[in-house]
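Reopening: Anti-sigma factor antagonist still failing for me.
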Amino acid sequence: MALAVSVGDTESVSVLVVEGELDMTTAPSLLDAASSVAVAGGGGLVLDLGRLAFCDSAGLGVIVKILRAVSGAGGTLAIAQPTPIVRSVLDLTGISEAVLVYPTVAAACAAVG
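Support: Ran it again with your exact input. Result attached.
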C-alpha cells in the first residue's frame, strides 16, 4: 500500500493527513511534505495519523526527524488520532512521551496553536 499525504491548514497550525503505510519506501514522502510545510509555516504542525495502517522503524525515524525540525524552528509537533496499532508502536518506543498525542485533530490543533 502506498502513502498519501495531504496538507490542511488552520489559522496557526498546519495539518498533515497521513494515509496508508509509513515504511522505508514511503517515509521520504512524509519527510518531504513535512519539510515543505515547516519551511512555509513555522508554528505548530499536527500529524493526523487516523488513517495510517502501518508504521515501521523508518517511519518512526521520520517522525523523530520532523519533531527535531519543528522544535528547532521554535514550533510544536503533535500527533492526532493515531490508529491503535500505530499508538502502540509510539508507546512501546517512547515516542509518545516526546511528542504530544491527542485523540482528535481539533484537540491537537488547539494544543499547538
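The longest strand covers residues 44-55. If you still see a failure, please send the error message rather than a screenshot.
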